[in-house]
Amino acid sequence: MEEENKTHIKAQKGWAEIPWKEIWDYRDLLYFLTIRNLKARYAQSILGTGWAILQPLLYMGIFTLVFGKFAQLDSDGHPYALFTLAAIVPWSFFSAILTEGSLSLVQQAPMLSKVYFPRIVLPLSAGLAKGWEFMIGFIILIFSTLFVGIFPDIDWLFFIPMVFLLGLTAFGLAFILAALAIQFRDVKYALPFLIQLLFFASPIVYSTSIVPESILPLYAFNPMVGVIEGFRAAFFHSPVPWQLVIPGVFTASALFVFGLLYFHRAERNFADLA
Fold first, then answer.
1. Rounded mean pLDDT of 224-240?
2. Which residues have a Cβ under 8 Å from the Cβ of 205 and sit 6 or more positions away?
3. Which of 71, 109, 174, 269 is surrounded by the most beta carbons within 10 Å?
4. Are 138 and 162 in contact (CB under 8 A)?
């Protein structure tokens, strides 16, 4: 009789093992941590959110001078400053999510051993806090296109799926690196090199037209290639480069799913490693 009253709990495998309901139940914590990270970003700063305006403009000026004027890189017939700005805005958001999300567990290590909550809230909140800077950069991009005589139409809506693709890629990588960083602190030192490598592997300061056709199919599996070229297509009213976007969708989806599963399975040891 006692045996009949026992409840046997079996571990779920794959996608079903992600505690979606638990993550939703802690949405208030996610919101609070996102706002806290946003405020801490500009604490004791003279310019405050002005840095979010200044940073993309500085990058645009430097890249235009070095790569546009000196190196004479092709910009597909568009003003080089606008050509790079259309890449800087999504790239800055991507690199910010990746950097802050990857180091979020290490930076908040004391929380891991004091109270229980879904640990995935930490990289999510760290990345989402960067959304404010992305919005400012996006507004700068809009005004810049209007300044050169490019006006909005239905094509601009294509940036929405590109932001979604960017998020899948950035958070997928951030989940993996955050889980590794709490165990191997070398990740903190390797991360800048990884971001720099991805920078040059993405068409930020150059056009994909200079990439040899023989390696273009492989090159397109970098999701940021499709994101950046998708942004340019949206704002310049150019044809969507599906041959660059679609391979990146597969890579981004695989990274996000693997990142979620890897993070969840490693989560049980975070408190001991912090």
1. 95
2. 63, 67, 73, 84, 87
3. 174
4. no
* Residue 94 near residue 258 (C-beta atoms within 8 A): no
What backbone torsions phi and psi does residue 204 show, to the nearest 5 degrees?
A: -90, -50
Average pLDDT over residues 9-28: 70
DSSP assignment string, 217-264: HHHTTSHHHHHHHHHHHHHHTPPP-HHHHHHHHHHHHHHHHHHHHHHH
How many Å apart are CA 119 and CA 55, to the nearest integer? 31
For the chain, give the longest Cα–Cα distance: 84
Candidate from 52-56, 80-84, 95-99, 103-107 with smallest mean pLDDT:
52-56
Question: 217 exposed, middle or buried (CB, 10 Å; 0-12, 13-18, 19+)?
Answer: exposed
Distance of alpha carbon 259 from alpha carbon 178, whole angstroms: 10
CA atoms within 13 A on the CB side of 160: 5
Mean pLDDT of 228-255: 95
- Reduced to 3 states (helix: H, G, I; strand: E, B; else coil), residue 73 is coil
Residue 34: pLDDT over 90: yes
Q: Which residue has the tokens 């981004």?
A: 252
Nearest to 15 by CA among 221, 248, 253: 253
User: Does residue 135 carry a pLDDT above 90?
Assistant: yes
